[in-house]
Amino acid sequence: MTGHLNAADLAWMMTSTALVLLMTPALGLFYGGMAGSKHILNTMLMSFATLGFTLVTWALVGYSLAFSPGGALVGDLRWALLRGVDLAAGQPLGPTISHVVYMAFQATFAVITTALVSGGVVGRMRFRAYLAFITLWVVGVYAPIAHWVWGGGWLGRLGALDFAGGTVVHVNAGVAAMVAALVVGNRKDYGRQAFLPGNLPFVLLGAALLWFGWFGFNGGSAVASTASAALAFVNTFLAPGAALVAWALLDLARIGKVTAMGVASAIVVGLVVITPASGFVPPVWALVMGALGALPSYVAMQWRARTPIDESLDVFAGHAVGGATGAVLTGVFAVKAWNGVQSGLVAGNPQQVAIQILAVLGAAAYSAVGTLVLLKAIGAITPLRASDHEQALGMDSTQHGEEPYTAGEGAVLVLPEVSAEPALQPAGADA
Description:
Blueprint (H helix, E strand, L loop, with lengths): L6 H28 L5 H11 L2 H15 L21 E3 L2 E5 H19 L9 H24 L3 H5 L7 H19 L15 H20 L7 H29 L4 H15 L8 H23 L9 H19 L2 H4 L11 H29 L8 H6 L1 H6 L31
Antiparallel strand pairs: 1-2
């Protein structure tokens, strides 16, 4: 397909690419702040590692498998090693921007999606096994699902709506995180010690930067500087605010307090919920979706906390449940007058809801099976799980040989006076 470069579109897409790239370090802060003080560097590096391993893999082969014409299930290798991915316009989903810029924009999606999965295995997965996993996962799981929806695959042909990745990114990553948590197993002290956030200001900062980057995530998915991008931009502004209000009210009703962890979680869930609908629904429905979408994820987090499943960063509740909720609500609230594609239930097309549900189930099933197969294959070659001793010492020191917090040169360490009475270790203190 031939196209014509448009300077405004090209500038917006390069800006959006940079915004989405920022989301991965932001996720590192968000996840790292939730991890214990012995695992914060390891957790953050799991996000930062995707900036290299996923990005390079995407450029070599992942992009071609996801977006080259291929067939209904996966693309072919015509763009492997970025052959033919040049400065000219003409890629079908970006006819007014350079093909290479479209590739870069989609690379940031692959990077953040693989980083999201890391939240399921914090504090116990060996780093070398994790690097092997993300490298294979972006090829074997992410690229095919992206092709299904955005690259001309079967879900796109069926009419599934996913403006910026509710199914491709969030359902996919959330399910993979849950499977990874079950395969790798619980941390050695799970259920015996409270899992307390190590740095709540990091969590809040990470959530704020994620929201900032998400304007490129959703607005850039219009692949042009158009009214559709403006709509996605505004909806990305509104939905998290509505989710925050709903979440705060739920917390006040349940525990009588609004917490920093709750506010940060609400922002992220609101962003996840609006992602598949951001360019398809009018702003008033974005407010409704943000408020409605908070409840399923809130309930899922409370449920998970009562189970023996060590998925303590709640990637499944926030992203799989939030993404599925947003995908289905897209089928309810999409309005043709605002998106030019097709309407949803409220505009007289109930069939769209069924298509959205099928897309969620298809992506979830493939992600679960693909993730399980990859982890079992890697585990047959190298151990997935750090030993109990390594976990007790901390993943920062055992996997990276570093500590997150050290006294500066020349600092004087002042010890408290020793009491004659034995000190009591608080229950839930980080060992």
